[in-house]
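Structure first, sequence second, as always.
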């Protein structure tokens, strides 16, 4: 087949009104950063053994895992070898995050992902200096592979309800880890089943029969040579899922499993040899790993959304269907304004999430630097904002990725389009690292508090200050950016105030504050989203919106080209740069194992006797 680029895509690229490379540079953080990223991609993607012979989707559950481990090892080594010693760690991390290189290797996700995403951050955030030195030396070289084991069969959201116990035995200076019930089994941690040999376990600490809260412990659960589970350890894999099937999520139970005292991560709280417990300056510091991951997720969503809209926009420029005007031929489906409406929001949201992620990362860095100096003042605000942005970006990304998928019609349903797998990845993020409704209610809790403070005349932090602005109830709509922001503030204020009024009404009618909170929680969740404005205002905005869609239309392909994803990273029959959609669909269809023989054995075994009445 010829490598010619599809004519419609060529025309689109000619029509583009802006410099695509400039936007790419902007997204990377400068022209040099773009070069660094491309150099990294060239090196890594030319590694032998990194890709599948048979498309992943045709493998069995077990083969998928084994193949993913094989690739994870090759990929890890390739990334190490591609490291440029002249670059800072931050520059390297930027190039890796932006390129989504791992997506070229795993259509699903890596069985090592939890080691990098949570095990190492948990050590960095929860270990004291001595522990950090010891464990990071081993973990950073992957001499040991770890995961983060918090969720249990019975409890994910309610961390204080975790049942795994760690009981200190001062005689032997050991903790005894135990799962007293079936529901106490750790359930979900990625890499846990057959990949990792260590994990950070969140367990309920008891000293002399007294509860000392949930604490982190580093636990070896497999032998380093034989990989056999250690005595007192019961573990396995939790089974097939909507996505994440190569992540190796597992279960883990303890039967009076003993670990030395220095295996409790003691940056915040400490247990001394004689069993003296030294409290953390703030019990929520134990939840720090989750705050970090929530911050990271926002950027991850921006990238996955960019990937999905790149596929859908390129496909929509190539695909022609129906008629707009009689006898004018079939238009590109991208010419339908409804299609533009489905997809351009995805492009815009990806940019918005990228900028938001940068802002949130800066806030995270500032607050963690303050924490190191013992200043905890801004921790509650960071928590509230990270919860809100994790929840909003994952919810929106799931909706917009699914919309990108359905906007490709039947072909979007094919696994070879990669859109179903991207959806599987992003919808998981609505649940992991804090279920979204629960996280929004955390934000709502701090909004309600802030409004109460505003109403009693206290000054609020800049992110909440709109709650103390004097706003007239009839806002005159104004379509400027400033006007739109004011409009959102007005609506957000109105929602928080109305949710609070409703809570007060329930309290006056005799409900306790917790029940009043529960009764008002639908409104409270809405208050934490900031998402909608009134119907009348929307009507005023509609004209401007349709006008903007028309302005974006000639630049749509340029805008997604600027994300600069290689074909291997898109991993899709519908999204490749050259737009050879139909050729690729056929090439991939022919890889189906069912096409290896003209007649399948089931014909002779079942169909023929059935059709001939002999079965
Ligand atoms: C829902 C909450 C936040 C509730 O916690 P709680 O102890 O019941 O607290 P509460 O009584 O509601 O509130 C007490 C107070 O603590 C605050 N707080 C709660 N969390 C934090 C924090 N991280 N930083 C700073 N402050 C925090 C709350 O806002 C409350 O503050 P307030 O009393 O209002 O001043 C918490 O339990 C939680 O975070 N649950 C979600 C569980 C979760 O995220 N699990 C993640 C498991 S790992 C994973 O999923 C990895 C996947 C990765 C992958 O596969 O890639
Ligand atoms: C793909 C994937 C990977 C994961 N990886 C890991 C991992 O590596 N390590 C790990 O420890 N865990 C992991 N998890 C577990 C994950 O963190 C939990 O599933 C998550 O925190 C949600 O908890 P839950 O499953 O108990 O849901 P539940 O809390 O039982 O939620 C069920 C419903 O109850 C509602 N609900 C619960 N509490 C409240 C409340 N207070 N107010 C209002 N509504 C409420 C929720 O909104 C939801 O609708 C993973 C999960 C997934 C899906």
């Amino acid at each position: 087949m010829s490598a010619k680029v599809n004519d419609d895509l060529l025309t689109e690229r000619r029509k583009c009104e802006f410099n695509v490379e400039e936007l790419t540079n902007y997204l990377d953080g400068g022209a040099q950063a773009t070069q660094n990223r491309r150099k990294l991609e060239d090196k890594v993607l030319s590694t032998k053994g990194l890709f599948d012979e048979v498309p992943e989707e045709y493998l069995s559950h077990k083969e998928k895992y084994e193949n993913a481990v094989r690739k994870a090892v090759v990929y890890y080594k390739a990334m190490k070898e591609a490291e440029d010693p002249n670059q800072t760690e931050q520059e390297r991390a930027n190039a890796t995050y932006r390129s989504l290189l791992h997506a070229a290797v795993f259509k699903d996700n890596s069985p090592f992902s939890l080691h990098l995403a949570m095990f190492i951050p948990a050590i960095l955030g929860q270990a004291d200096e001595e522990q950090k030195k010891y464990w990071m030396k081993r973990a950073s070289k992957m001499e040991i592979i770890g995961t983060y084991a918090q969720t249990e069969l019975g409890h994910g959201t309610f961390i204080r309800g975790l049942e795994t116990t760690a009981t200190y035995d001062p005689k032997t200076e050991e903790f005894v880890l135990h799962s007293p019930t079936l529901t106490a089994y750790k359930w979900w941690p990625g890499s846990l089943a057959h990949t990792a040999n260590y994990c950070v376990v969140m367990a309920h600490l008891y000293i002399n029969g007294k509860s000392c809260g949930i604490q982190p412990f580093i636990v070896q659960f497999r032998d380093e040579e034989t990989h056999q589970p250690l005595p007192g350890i019961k573990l396995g894999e939790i089974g097939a899922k909507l996505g994440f099937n190569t992540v190796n999520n597992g279960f883990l139970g303890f039967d009076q499993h003993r670990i030395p005292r220095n295996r409790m991560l003691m940056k915040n709280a400490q247990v001394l040899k004689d069993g003296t417990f030294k409290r953390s300056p703030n019990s929520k510091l134990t939840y720090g790993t989750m705050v970090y991951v929530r911050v990271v997720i926002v950027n991850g969503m921006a990238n996955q959304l960019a990937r999905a809209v790149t596929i859908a926009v390129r496909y929509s420029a190539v695909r022609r269907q129906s008629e707009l005007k009689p006898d004018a031929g079939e238009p590109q489906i991208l010419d339908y304004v409804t299609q533009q409406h489905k997809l351009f929001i995805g492009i815009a949201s990806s940019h918005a999430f990228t900028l938001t992620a940068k802002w949130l990362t800066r806030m995270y860095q500032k607050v963690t630097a303050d924490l190191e100096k013992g200043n905890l003042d801004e921790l509650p605000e960071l928590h509230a904002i990270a919860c809100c942005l994790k929840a909003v970006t994952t919810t929106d990304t799931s909706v917009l990725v699914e919309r990108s998928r359905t906007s490709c019609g039947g072909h979007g349903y094919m696994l070879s389009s990669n859109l179903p797998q991207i959806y599987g990845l992003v919808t998981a993020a609505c649940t992991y690292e804090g279920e979204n409704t629960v996280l929004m209610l955390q934000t709502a809790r701090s909004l309600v508090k802030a409004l109460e403070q505003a109403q009693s005349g206290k000054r609020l932090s800049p992110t909440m200050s709109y709650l103390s602005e004097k706003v007239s109830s009839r806002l005159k709509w104004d379509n400027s950016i400033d006007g739109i922001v004011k409009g959102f503030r007005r609506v957000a204020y109105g929602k928080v105030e109305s949710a609070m009024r409703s809570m007060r009404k329930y309290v006056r009618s005799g409900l306790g504050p917790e029940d009043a909170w529960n009764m008002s929680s639908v409104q409270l969740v809405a208050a934490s989203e900031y998402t909608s404005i009134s119907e009348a205002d929307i009507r005023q905005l509609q004209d401007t919106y349709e006008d903007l869609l028309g302005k974006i239309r000639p630049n749509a392909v340029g805008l997604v080209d600027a994300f600069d994803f290689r074909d291997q990273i898109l991993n899709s029959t519908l999204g490749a740069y050259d737009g050879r959609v139909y050729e690729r669909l056929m090439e991939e269809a022919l890889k189906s194992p069912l096409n290896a023989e003209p007649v399948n054995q089931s014909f002779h075994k079942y169909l023929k006797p059935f059709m001939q009445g002999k079965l």
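Margin note: Residues 337-372 form the longest helix (36 residues).
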